[in-house]
Amino acid sequence: MGHVKLHIPGPVEVSERTFRAFCRPMIGHRGQGFKDLYARLQPKLQQLLYTKRPVFLSTSSAWGVMEAAIRNLVRRRVLNCMCGAFSDKWHDVSKRCGKEAEPLQVPWGSPIRAEAVDKKLATGQFDAVTIIHNETSTGVMSPLEEIAALKRKYPDVMFIVDTVSSMSAVKLPFDELGIDVMLAGTQKAFALPPGMTVFVCSEAAMQRAATIPDRGYYFDFLEFQKNAEQNMTPSTPSIPHVYALDDKLDEILAEGLEARFERHRRTNQMVRDWAARHGFTLFPEPGFESRTLTCINNGAKPGGRVIDVPRFQQLVKERGFLIDGGYGKIKGTTFRVSNMGNETEETMAELLAAMDDALKAL
Ligand SMILES: *Cc1c(COP(=O)(O)O)cnc(C)c1O
User: Fold this and answer.
1) What's the predicted TM-score (pTM) here?
2) Chain segment 226-277, per-residue pLDDT in tens
3) Which residue of 52, 271, 308, 355 sits 20 to 30 Å from the alpha carbon of 217, by its own alpha carbon?
4) If pLDDT is split at 50, 70 and 90, which confidence band does 1 have?
5) Is residue 215 annotated as involved in ligand binding?
6) Atom of ligand 1 nearest to the CA of 64
């Protein structure tokens, strides 16, 4: 069988163009060639993230930097905002790092709300908070702007934000938001192969990190800063990812950021319309649906149509596309379709036609 095109919420389909950029001859990571590449990348990443801060490159998946943020920034106690599999896991990871951690748990399908975060932070017990902007397991996008606005009220709290499945698809103005860490793995909305994470830290985050012992080496934010000043990474990076990211940023900026955000909005709407047309409801609380993936309700919540998801997935796969059968405790009672990366109205129409056909064949 030929390649099955990925429409799961990561990794997503990688274009031929990106693969070509990925497969260039190696260079030394301490040589001028690499430094030039790194320096060329910076303004493009800063433009994408609306920041003047240096943007760091970590050779790891997102969890590397998610764990690093805990190890670098939590001194006393961290508040983990939990609304799905990834954000729930971050609480476990915080404890595994030996930190005092408290959950702010909402039911899966609900967003994290600023009022709830405010109430917790008002206790004065926390010096850091973790938030996942786009909870990929439930397809919920939390109101980041409102949550980030709390930073002004609690300037000493580190706001650590996972934008793994939203970065580059949705506007995330880092400086304006005023948050402290924002990170994303490259295999989601960037549509690069997995293996690299892009992240940015505020000045305050760097100052906090400097006061925290036991930051280790590989993920020490101060090492990233020191090396970035020389246009380098602390250790040997995945150089193919840096090539591919350089090329991808050219592609993104040529399309135009606003145009890219709008494209994701339109392609996402197509999936929502598909679901409604076939009698399905969505899993997220109305008004908090993600713009990069759609989590379709299949019995997890009352209402809407229910189908045999594994069979449906198989039928869609036979038609050339891989969709996701639900994650964690909502596996099978939801299913997910990604519109991240290079997908256009034309390519999404192909997928949705295959899904129509598969539904008929059920
Ligand atoms: C995929 C994902 C992660 C984990 O990324 P890895 O690349 O597996 O480390 C974390 N958070 C969110 C929101 C994700 O979508």
Assistant:
1) 0.98
2) 999 999 999 999 999 999 999 999 999 999 999 999 999 999 999 999 999 9
3) 52
4) low
5) no
6) 9
- Residue 359 sits at the vertex; the CA angle it makes with 358 and 362, to the nearest 5 degrees, is 85
**Cα–Cα dist 91/103, whole Å:** 7
Tens-digit pLDDT profile for residues 332-342: 999 999 999 99
Sequential DSSP letters for 244-280: HHHHHHHHHHHH-HHHHHHHHHHHHHHHHHHHHHTT-
Largest Cα span, the chain:
61
Residue type, 205: A
Amino acid at the residue 330:
I
pLDDT at 2: 83
What class does CATH assign to 16-254? alpha beta
Residues touching ligand 1 (Cβ under 6 Å) are 10, 61-63, 86, 132, 134, 136, 162, 164-165, 185, 188, 194
> Considering the chain, what is the average pLDDT of its residues?
98
Sequence spans of domains, the chain: 5-12+257-361, 16-254
Instruction: Output the CA 15–ligand 1 centroid distance in Å.
Output: 21
Assign 77 to helix, strand or coil: strand
Looking at residue 192, its pLDDT comes to 98
Identify whether the C-beta of residue 294 lies closer than 8 Å to the C-beta of residue 282: yes
Distance 357 CA to ligand 1 centre (A): 31
- Domain 5-12+257-361 fold is Aspartate Aminotransferase, domain 1 (3.90.1150)
Nearest ligand 1 atom to alpha carbon 9: 15
For residue 158, CA distances in Å to 94, 127, 155, 208, 217 come to 14, 6, 8, 8, 21
